[in-house]
Amino acid sequence: MKPEGIIKSNWNEIVDSFNDMNLSESLLRGIYAYGFEKHSAIQQHDIFPCIKGYDVIPQAQSGTGKIATFAISILQQIELNLKATQALVLAPTEELAQQIQKLVMALGDYMGASCHACIGGTNVHAEVQNLQMEAPHIILGTPGGMFDMLNWRYLSPKYIKIFVLDKADEMLSRGFKDQIYDILKKLNSNTHVVLLSATMPSDVLEVTKTFMRDPIQILVKEEELTLEGICQFYINME
């Protein structure tokens, strides 16, 4: 039976709570400390296949908890003792990359995981030194910036095993197709790909068919939005 809020999915294994997902104790501690007490429909459905290494396509609007879904999945899969970049996350804007970084760091607060967002306009030399010396477990950035880092060999794809495209439809509509394809070609063929998109236009479908292997797909109702991290209020003007 599908969780409430799921319209369509080709994955039937449902997990009832964060405690049942075989997550590390330090990650669970971070999840609950952040304030997540009950998972959303997409988290209930998608975290487990992500952790198991399947390629996954969560198709949902903003506010469904999909960012936390891949953040938790990444944190569970990285090897903390390996000082190397193991997860690469693309976002359409630097601002979104920074927001994701904050969430990842908060959820992984008790793990000792390192996460870095590459931001344009900063000291490039210092950025490169940081990547090479620190080798953060998780790196986030825009397609253009991440392609440059890989192309100039400032960032090694050797140990990258998880690649996430957040808001894939928006990135492709902004003209990042060539950079995204070039990045995917530089990664290992067995890299686990997670593609998040609100819509599935032809260019997004082309990416899924070209670079993803039998992906697990989940479609969430718009009514299931959790408005994650958003406070709503009104002011009575009478």
Description:
GO terms for molecular function: ATP binding; hydrolase activity; RNA binding; RNA helicase activity; translation initiation factor activity. Keywords: ATP-binding, Helicase, Hydrolase, Initiation factor, Nucleotide-binding, Protein biosynthesis, RNA-binding. Residues 16-44 form the DEAD-box RNA helicase Q domain. This protein is an alpha/beta fold. The protein has a single domain, classed as P-loop containing nucleotide triphosphate hydrolases (Rossmann fold, 3-Layer(aba) Sandwich), CATH 3.40.50.300. It contains 9 helices and 8 strands. It has helices spanning 25-34, 41-51, 66-77, 94-107, 124-134, 143-151, 168-173, 177-186, 202-211; strands spanning 6-9, 56-59, 87-90, 115-117, 138-141, 162-165, 192-195, 216-220. It has a 5-stranded parallel sheet. A 3-stranded mixed sheet has the order 1-8-2, covered by helices on one side. Helix 2 (41-51) packs parallel to helix 3, helix 3 (66-77) crosses helix 4 (94-107) and helix 6 packs across helix 8. The longest helix has 14 residues, at 94-107. It starts with 5 loop residues before the first strand and ends in an 18-residue tail after the last strand. Mean pLDDT is 85; it is low at 223-234.
For the sheet with most strands, the description reads: 5 strands, parallel
- Strand and helix order: EHHEHEHEHEHEHHEHE
Widest beta sheet: strand line-up: 4-5-3-6-7
At the fold tier of CATH, the topology name is: Rossmann fold
CATH superfamily: P-loop containing nucleotide triphosphate hydrolases
Q: Average pLDDT value?
A: 85
What would you call the shape? globular
> Terminal Cα separation, in Å?
48 Å
Indicate the low-confidence ranges by residue numbers.
Answer: 223-234
